[in-house]
Amino acid sequence: MIAIVLMWFMNERSFTFKLDIWGEVIKILNNQKLITFKESMSERSEQMLKERIEKEIKKIKEDKSSGASEFTEKALEIFEAQLQLVRDGSQDITEEIHLISREIIEARPSMAPLMNIVGYLIGSVQQITSEKLNERMGQFRSFRNQKQSALESNFVRFIKENAKNSLRVMTISYSSTLINLFSKIKDYDIEFYVLESRPLFEGRRTAQILSKSYKTNLIVDAAMGYFMEEMDFILFGIDSILRDGSIINKIGTYPLSVLAQSKLKGVYAVGDSFKYNLKSHYGREVKIEQKSSKEVYQDSANNSLNVHNYYFDLTPSNYIRGIISDLGVNSPSEFISKVKESLALEWFEPFLKE
């Protein structure tokens, strides 16, 4: 091409014209470089987004301290990152979204809200597009705010109805739901007894936060019986509610509930209706997670010792006096009846078969 242009320059009569042509050639070459650069940057951006999604899913899987509401935010961020990979808003991305949904759910199989947020976003949608998913995500944020408002209202009413001159409440582990709720009712005289929640001591975080507004006592898990007589009732968060009304929560919740009932103390679980576990609803096993034994005991020289580190336990419904949720203050059986009417459940059955 350069040789041809030089030959054109030798023709003096068309010198100016040929200069113009050469200028166009330079523009074309520069534009091609720009296009190639943009394409390279676009490919790099896509790769970075994919890596970010993988990292966020890994964080959900390995997270040892966040509550359900924090996991919900992380799931929304993953969906938002996935949508950034889509250039055509009307493109069918059903397969990609189902894949990412499965990865989110399987990252924390006992965390019911992750299933229900997926259900809200993709349930009953035959063909998922970025336009439709963006619309659903906007609706979900509004829906979640309504649920949170209803839960707050029911919780405040429960505290008000049970408040005497003062209240003594025992709780376990860390629940972002409970922390948020108690931040809104500082006018009540409440004293907390917080179990430290071995092996990661999430109760310490709870105690530190509550102590800024309430008289708070941090106690070892094994001391629950020592202080139980002084309690008015027991409150704890929820990881999952199974179809029989039993509750999965931090390990230690089960013995705490059994002990409380033996002392005639009311046991109340607190969380929104998204804590209903859809795997359980369809008869699937919900596995209790076990983590590294080194978090409990480190002795590499003793190979004959079996060390168990289950993060959660299951409390049968007969030890739970009530579930405080956006649906009201209900017995476990009443809650199950109401939640089946309020949540979209059908979407999950075929999803399990994929």
Task: Provide the fold topology.
Layout: H1 2-9, H2 15-62, H3 68-83, H4 94-107, H5 112-122, H6 130-162, E1 167-172, H7 176-182, E2 190-195, H8 202-210, E3 215-219, H9 224-228, E4 233-236, E5 240-241, E6 247-250, H10 253-262, E7 266-270, H11 278-281, E8 312-315, E9 322-325, E10 328-330, H12 332-342, H13 348-353
Parallel strand pairs: 1-2, 1-4, 2-3, 4-7, 7-9
Antiparallel strand pairs: 5-6, 6-8, 9-10
Helix pairs in contact: 2-3, 2-4, 3-5, 4-5, 5-6
Descriptive labels:
354 residues; alpha/beta; Four Helix Bundle (Hemerythrin (Met), subunit A); Rossmann fold; 13 helices; 51% helix; disordered N terminus
- Order of strands across the widest beta sheet? 3-2-1-4-7-9-10
- The CATH topology of the largest domain turns out to be Rossmann fold
Q: How many angstroms does the end-to-end distance come to?
A: 56 Å
Mean pLDDT: 85
| Total beta-strand segments | 10
Q: Kindly state the percentage of residues in helix.
A: 40-55%
Unreliable segments of 5+ consecutive residues: 1-10
Spell out the helices and strands N to C.
HHHHHHEHEHEHEEEHEHEEEHH
Radius of gyration: 28 Å
CATH architecture of the largest domain: 3-Layer(aba) Sandwich
Supply the CATH superfamily name of the largest domain: Translation initiation factor eif-2b, domain 2
Based on secondary structure, the structural category is alpha/beta
**Total helical elements:** 13
Question: What profile does the largest beta sheet have?
Answer: 7 strands, mixed
